[in-house]
Design goal:
The chain is an alpha+beta fold and 220 residues long. It has helices at residues 2-5, 25-37, 56-72, 102-105, 123-138, 153-162, 188-193; strands spanning 12-14, 18-21, 78-87, 90-100, 107-114, 143-149, 165-174, 177-187, 200-202. Residues 18-189 form the N-acetyltransferase domain. InterPro entries: Acyl_CoA_acyltransferase, GNAT_dom, Ribosomal_N-acetyltransferase.
Length: 220
C-alpha cells in the first residue's frame, strides 16, 4: 500500500472542530476550488508571493502544482507539510508546517489560509494550534516562527492568542510595492503556557524518520 512508502498519509491532527491531514485527490480538488472562490479582498494581499492575483482557474491549478511539488521535494533536511483543514467533512483551508535543518535547529515555520466563506469563526486559531501541537509535542520543536503584514489583523490576533511574541520587522516587496512584515516567534515555554486548544495527533510514530527524527527525538 502507498502508506507503507509514504507514512505521512496516515498522519492526522484533530481539534474539537477540525481534522487536518494530507489531502487526497478529491480534497486537493476541493482546496483548489476554494482558492478559486477567493481568500481575501482584491485590494489586499496577505502573501509574500501574490499567487492569489492569478485568475481563478490558474489560481486553482497553482494549488495543485504546489502540493505535488512539495511532496516530491520532501527530505528530512527540508520539508513542507501542507495539511488540508476539514470541518464536518468539508475542506475549509490549508495549514502548513515547514522546516529546514529541523533536527539541528528545532525550529518550524507556520503558514495558512482559509476560504473566504470560512473566515471569522475561530478556525484559524484551532488549525494553527493543531500544527503547534505537532511541532512541540510531537516533533520536539524549541521554537515556532511566523510572520504577517502590518495590516493583517486577523493573523496577528491568532498569534497573540497562542502566545507568540513580536520579533522585529522585515521590509520586502509585495505587488512591486514596499511592505513591512512583522516577525513572530513562539518559544516552547510560551506555547506550554498558552496551550488552551485541545489537539490530538495520530499516526506520527511511523512518520518520524521522514522528519529526520527517531522515536525518542520526537517525544515531548
Amino acid at each position: 500500500m502507498l502508506i507503507d512508502h509514504w507514512p505521512l498519509l496516515g498522519l492526522r491532527l484533530t481539534t474539537p472542530r477540525l481534522e487536518l491531514r494530507l489531502p487526497g485527490d478529491e480534497e486537493l480538488a476541493a482546496l483548489a476550488d476554494l482558492a478559486a472562490e477567493g481568500i481575501h479582498p482584491p485590494d489586499r494581499m496577505p502573501f509574500l508571493i501574490p499567487w492569489t492575483d492569478l485568475p481563478p482557474a490558474e489560481r486553482a491549478r497553482s494549488v495543485v502544482r504546489h502540493h505535488w511539488l512539495r511532496r516530491g521535494t520532501w527530505t528530512p533536511e527540508d520539508w513542507v507539510l501542507n495539511l488540508a483543514v476539514i470541518e464536518d467533512g468539508r475542506v475549509v483551508g490549508l495549514q502548513t508546517l515547514a522546516a529546514r535543518s529541523f533536527t539541528e535547529l528545532r525550529q518550524a515555520t507556520t503558514a495558512s489560509w482559509l476560504g473566504v466563506r470560512h473566515q471569522g469563526r475561530g478556525i484559524g486559531t484551532e488549525m494553527r494550534a493543531a500544527v503547534l501541537e505537532l511541532a512541540f509535542a510531537g516533533l520536539g520543536a524549541r521554537e515556532a516562527v511566523s510572520g504577517a503584514f502590518t495590516d493583517n489583523d486577523a493573523s496577528m490576533a491568532v498569534s497573540r492568542k497562542l502566545g507568540y511574541r513580536e520579533d522585529g520587522i522585515d521590509r520586502t516587496l509585495s505587488r512591486g510595492r514596499p511592505v513591512t512584515v512583522r516577525r513572530l516567534r513562539l518559544s516552547r515555554e510560551d506555547w506550554a503556557l498558552r496551550r488552551s486548544v485541545a489537539a490530538g495527533i495520530e499516526g506520527l510514530e511511523s512518520c518520524l524518520g521522514m522528519f529526520g527524527l527517531g522515536a525518542v527525538d520526537g517525544a515531548e
